[in-house]
Specification:
This protein has about 170 residues and is mainly α. It is built from 6 helices and no strands. It starts with a helix and ends with a helix.
Length: about 170
């Protein structure tokens, strides 16, 4: 039987993935900031629950990966209200922590291979975006192809985590 925590984590990831992607495509600054704030809260709640779950299971690296991801999402949340350009410093720090957290979660065979690969692809794309920002490229959270190319891989990874949380226990 699935736990309430798993269900809440799955809902948080679904909200995060859906509203995060939606926020990338809206033209209104206020709507984007609102969607991304709700998205961020959902992801922080989900990641906190996943930290506890995997720590209890004795999977310290995965738990630490979710904690690192949570820290990154918190930085992103902190910059939302500042607008796209003003949020770039917290955005760069946030996606750097996303990348590290995704690598940590994907490093062990806790999740299916396809989830681990989508997580690693997202991590590489976000890490490259961070380096570009640090070296002066005029990137914002909605810039294309980077960092925008990383978001679909992140959402695919979230989808896999949701599936893992909701599948029937054996």
């Amino acid at each position: 039987m699935r736990s309430t925590s798993d269900t809440i984590a799955a809902i948080g990831l679904a909200i995060g993935g859906t509203l995060g992607m939606a926020g990338t495509f809206v033209a209104s600054d206020a709507l984007r900031e609102t969607l991304w704030t709700i998205d961020g809260v959902g992801v922080v709640v989900a990641a906190a629950l996943l930290v506890v779950k995997y720590q209890r299971l004795g999977n310290d690296l995965v738990a630490a990966g979710f904690l690192t991801f949570l820290a990154g999402e918190s930085l992103l949340l902190a910059g939302n209200a500042a607008g796209l350009q003003a949020s770039v410093p917290s955005y760069a720090g946030g996606i750097a922590l996303w990348a590290a957290g995704l690598v940590m979660v994907s490093a062990q065979a806790t999740f299916a291979l396809w989830m681990r690969l989508t997580g690693l692809i997202a991590a590489v794309l976000f890490a490259v975006s961070v380096l570009m920002i640090l070296w002066g490229a005029p990137l914002s959270p909605t810039s294309s192809p980077l960092p925008a190319l990383g978001y679909p891989f992140l959402v695919l990874t979230f989808t896999g985590w949701i599936w893992t949380l909701l599948k029937a226990e054996r």
